[in-house]
Specification:
60% of the residues lie in helices and 5% in strands. By secondary structure, the protein is mainly α.
């Protein structure tokens, strides 16, 4: 069965063109289910019944898994069995007949304009790290790219005279404009700071760590948490918070959904429409707070 899991992983990456993070989540769910079947059920994975699968999801819930996690696990297993049936490894998809209660999605949290300004003010441009961090935060809010895309950028992906970056994800490339403050921060970092930070002259990564090598997700996570604390912002900030804030602020200021969709790299407009709900929610909050009759 490990062979079929690996084949499914290649299918998701090469055929479905799913992101590496999405594939990792699916495969993690499937391997967890595989371990459960091996330890708790007296049958092969291909022979699991609808009833046994239903018991598995109840087991996940009883072991403290959230409704969102259980729902995602069902989607992962359903997709896997669909692949097994199509590939001739299994005769039926037991997950196809299971329907869990719909989980209400929480709207992502965004920063206010003032909170964004406060966060961007935190890096002190007194040493290489400060200049680098300033450039990273400005670029992230200027473009709304994912943290995986940020750390994957190479120097050649930035066109400062043209005022845009080229971002590639899952084989698709898009160009995203930069505002002047971001251009200045990146220009200073690239021309004055990065040359002394890189470990090797051949290093292509735009952003490097203090060892001179490409910045990691974990490294950037620590950076943004540090500046959340120094800015004394009480909201939980992740790299994705700036992505959400970028989209919501554009929408608040009149940008159309299709342009935002293109800049975010969403393949489906429905993924972008969530930001209209955020903007409406914020408007209602402002109304209730400030209208004298509210």
């Amino acid at each position: 069965m490990n062979d079929s899991v690996e084949l499914y992983e290649r299918f998701l990456l090469d055929v479905k063109k799913a992101s590496s993070n999405t594939v990792a989540s699916y495969i993690r769910d499937i391997r967890q289910f595989d371990r459960y079947v091996a330890q708790m059920l007296d049958c092969a994975l291909e022979q699991v019944s609808v009833e046994q699968l239903t018991v598995y999801f109840a087991w996940l819930t009883n072991n403290g898994k959230s409704s969102a996690t259980v729902t995602r696990s069902l989607a992962s297993i359903k997709g896997f069995y669909s692949f097994l049936v199509t590939s001739g490894f299994a005769e039926q998809n037991p997950a196809k007949l299971i329907h869990l209660a719909k989980v209400e999605k929480k709207l992502p949290q965004i920063l206010t304009g003032r909170e964004v300004e406060l966060l961007l003010e935190q890096p002190q441009c007194t040493d290489p790290k400060g200049y680098r961090d300033k450039a990273m935060l400005e670029l992230l809010y200027a473009t709304g790219i994912r943290v995986s895309e940020l750390i994957s950028l190479n120097v050649e992906d930035v066109n400062l005279p043209g005022g845009f970056i080229r971002c590639a994800n899952v084989g698709k490339a898009r160009s995203i404009p930069l505002y002047p403050a971001a251009i200045r921060a990146i220009q200073t970092y690239v021309t004055q700071i990065r040359p002394s930070m890189i470990a090797e002259p051949t290093e292509q990564a735009l952003f490097v760590n203090l060892s001179g090598e490409r910045m990691s997700r974990q490294g950037f996570w620590k950076i943004i948490k540090h500046y959340q604390q120094t800015a004394n912002i009480q909201k939980e900030i992740t790299p994705h918070t700036l992505r959400h804030s970028f989209a919501a602020h554009l929408l608040e200021n009149g940008a159309d959904l299709h342009s935002i969709q293109e800049m975010l790299g969403h393949s489906d407009i429905s993924s972008t429409q969530i930001y209209t709900q955020i903007v409406k929610q914020n408007l209602k909050s402002v109304y209730n707070k400030f209208h004298p009759k509210a």
